[in-house]
Inverse folding.
């Protein structure tokens, strides 16, 4: 969960905003509590490289400590989300690597998904056009996903002679769209249409391409204005309860909710309700 570190806390300096983050391998924009990551190699449909994988992993890890960032949007430039690993800059070099090097790479790509899932902020995907391979896994790792009628999502690992089991796909995808549908996509590598994605629960909603980013950002702003500590708790419990029994989950949620009831945001919500006004949350 995301912890609030007040100004009087001796640890506060570790969580203060430092110099504005300057991304090297994608675009980063921050405004009003929302950070936006834009994959921006539009001439190649925004493929990933060894460097962009690593920088994305490190950014999502660092966002755990960014108390000013309340929600995150991930999108792509030029009408596409991400075409996966760059064929020339990643796939080619991988064919010449030995097992220890290959395992370092596959663990790094998995670490990106883990960093996204462990990042306490809600993450909203604005997913247009091509969304393939590792790009599909980044989209899958988001908490909320919005697409356009033009979006095509393909877990195409089998098309390049690999297993569909990549970056957590066999664990995450069945939980989102069901075992049978996930099995079909992972065995065949075919593209899931936007309409299928919405009907199967992969997309929360579809918007026309020109309105997609604005719609996703609107959701992120609403989340950023909410009780960020409680949002972090929700994300934590959604992940942890996968491995719990029902009884364990109910007990864990009882403890989680009791913790949230100690926050100032809980008091603010009550006071605002009593005064018939909208609460202004502070994340503490």
């Amino acid at each position: 969960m995301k912890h609030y570190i007040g100004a009087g806390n001796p640890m506060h300096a570790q969580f203060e905003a430092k110099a504005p983050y300057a991304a090297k391998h994608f675009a980063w924009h921050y405004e009003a509590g929302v950070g936006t990551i834009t994959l921006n190699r539009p001439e190649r449909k925004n493929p990933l490289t060894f460097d962009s994988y690593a920088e994305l992993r490190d950014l999502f890890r660092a966002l755990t400590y960014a108390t000013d960032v309340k929600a995150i949007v991930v999108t792509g430039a030029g009408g596409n989300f991400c075409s996966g690993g760059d064929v020339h800059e990643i796939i080619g070099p991988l064919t010449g690597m030995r097992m220890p090097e290959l395992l370092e790479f596959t663990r790094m790509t998995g670490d990106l998904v883990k960093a996204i899932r462990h990042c306490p902020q809600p993450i909203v995907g604005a997913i247009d056009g091509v969304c393939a391979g590792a790009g599909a896994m980044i989209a899958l790792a988001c908490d909320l996903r919005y697409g356009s009628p033009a979006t095509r999502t393909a877990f195409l690992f089998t098309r390049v002679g690999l297993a569909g089991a990549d970056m957590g796909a066999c664990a995450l995808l069945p939980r989102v769209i069901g075992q049978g549908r996930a099995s079909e996509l992972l065995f065949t590598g075919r593209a899931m249409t936007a309409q299928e994605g919405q009907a199967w629960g992969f997309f929360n909603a579809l918007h026309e391409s020109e309105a997609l980013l604005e719609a996703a950002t609107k959701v992120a702003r609403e989340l950023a204005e909410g009780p960020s500590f409680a949002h972090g708790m929700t994300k934590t419990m959604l992940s942890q309860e996968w491995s719990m029994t029902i009884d364990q989950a109910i007990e864990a949620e009882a403890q989680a909710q009791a913790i949230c009831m100690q926050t100032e945001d809980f008091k603010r919500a009550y006071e605002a309700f009593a005064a018939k006004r909208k609460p202004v949350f502070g994340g503490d």
User: Anything to note?
Assistant: The mean pLDDT is 93. The chain is about 45% helix and 15% strand. The radius of gyration is 20 Å.
